[in-house]
Structure formats: structure tokens, C-alpha cells
Write a structure and sequence with these properties.
Layout: E1 3-7, H1 16-27, E2 31-34, H2 43-51, E3 55-61, H3 69-78, H4 81-84, E4 96-103, H5 120-123, H6 125-133, E5 137-138, E6 142-145, H7 152-167, H8 174-190, H9 194-229
Parallel strand pairs: 1-2, 1-3, 3-4, 4-5, 4-6
Helix pairs in contact: 1-7, 8-9
Length: 230
């Protein structure tokens, strides 16, 4: 799977969170494309990039409850009717659309009755509408909540989730999460000295055993439910 990350940020060189995530994106062989560096847009080139990738990520800080101007300008210029609308033969270039944003206010504040008053679904509605219009599947929104206040372990957990968003074909299922984690640990294992590789092998084996036990339990529960329904 090939992933294109469209980054909209007017001061990306000053953004520690963007530089932090860039390392994760490149580690997963994703295409890191900064929109502010390519204005005015070469429409043919931008559309070719979209055609060459399976997953598209819009990545930006939330400015006044919306995306920076460069992303809106990109949408207006690149997503032409002939290119993007399924009814006109377009939109065969992509299957999934993701949305990644950094927020300065705590995530819990974005809800009806909370300080920001509007929910995540309400704020992402325009992007969900774009995905629906061009026939894409909208992925769960990936929020970075006050990056500067996070601890080192929290940032590493964030980076792992981000890398999964980029490179894991199916999201939202524990079995797929485990498969992805095991594949990355196996790569790391191949790079370690023999004693460390052996210890990591025990971790991998435990993950795979736990996944099989969970699968067996799920099958058993399904059989019990089927028996109760008869």
C-alpha cells in the first residue's frame, strides 16, 4: 500500500510535531508532500501523485476550526470535476482518505456542552463530505492533542499509531494491529545482536500466542451465540 501525506503548514520548519512525524512517515516509505512548498500548483503533477497512491492523508494544524489556506487552495485547484467526480469518470485514483490534525486545546474540550461547544464529527464534516462526494472511504480522524505537553512514552505511542495509520492496510481491528506490530518487530529483530534478538523473539511469540487465544475465544463465543439463537 502506498500512502501520500499532504501536509499543509505555513511554518512547517518551526513545527516540532511535524518534524517528529516526518521521520515516522519516511520510515514507512510514505510520500511526504508539503503543499506550501508547491504553490502555485502543477495540477497535472498533483493529480498524478493522487493516482499513484492508495491512501491519502490530509495533515495540518487546526486554524480557527478549519484547515490552513494552502489545503483549501489545493482542493480548489486539483480536485476538478472531471478528475474527482465518480459520475464523470474520476475518483478511481484513491480508496481511503485520512485526516490528521494538531490541536492546542485538549481533545476533551471538543464536544457539545464543553468549552469548544463543537464535536470532532462536526469539525471534520467538510472533509467527510469530500470523501463521500468523490467515493472515498473516510478513515478515523487522527488527533494530536497538545504535542508539546506529552511525555516521551506518549510521543512514542503516538508515533506507533501514526505509522499504523500510514501503512496498515486495515484499521480498527485488533488482529490487524497485532499483525502489523509483529511485522515491525520482526524487522527490528533481524537488526539486533543474537541475545537481544532472542529476547525479542519471546515477545513476538507471546503476541502471536495471545492473538491465537483471542481468535479461539472469539470463535467459541460465536458458537455459543449461535446455539442460543436456535
Amino acid at each position: 500500500m502506498k500512502t501520500l501525506i499532504l501536509v499543509a503548514h505555513p511554518r512547517i520548519e518551526d513545527s516540532y510535531s511535524q518534524q517528529f512525524l516526518k521521520h515516522g512517515a519516511l520510515a514507512e516509505a510514505a510520500t511526504w508532500h508539503v503543499l506550501d512548498d508547491h504553490q502555485p500548483y502543477d495540477i497535472d503533477h498533483e493529480q498524478a501523485l493522487l493516482r499513484a497512491h492508495d491512501r491519502i492523508i490530509f495533515q495540518f494544524p487546526l486554524y480557527w476550526y478549519s484547515a490552513p489556506a494552502s489545503l483549501k487552495a489545493w482542493q480548489d485547484a486539483v480536485l476538478t470535476r472531471q478528475f474527482a467526480y465518480p459520475s464523470l469518470g474520476g475518483a478511481s485514483w484513491v480508496r481511503t482518505l485520512g485526516w490528521r490534525s494538531a490541536w492546542g486545546s485538549p481533545k476533551k474540550n471538543y464536544a457539545v456542552g464543553r468549552p469548544e461547544q463543537f464535536s470532532l464529527d462536526q469539525l471534520t464534516a467538510p472533509f467527510q463530505a469530500v470523501a463521500n462526494k468523490v467515493g472515498m472511504r473516510f478513515l478515523p480522524t487522527f488527533i494530536i492533542d497538545r504535542f508539546g505537553s506529552q511525555t516521551a512514552p506518549q510521543k512514542q505511542h503516538l508515533l506507533t499509531r501514526y505509522r499504523r495509520l500510514i501503512s496498515q492496510p486495515t484499521l480498527g481491528h485488533l488482529a490487524n494491529d497485532v499483525d502489523w506490530t509483529v511485522s515491525r518487530l520482526q524487522v527490528l529483530q533481524s537488526q539486533l545482536p543474537a541475545d537481544q534478538a532472542q529476547r525479542l523473539g519471546f515477545v513476538i511469540e507471546a503476541l502471536e500466542t495471545g492473538q491465537q487465544d483471542l481468535s479461539d475465544l472469539t470463535t467459541t463465543l460465536a458458537m455459543i451465540r449461535d446455539a442460543e439463537d436456535q
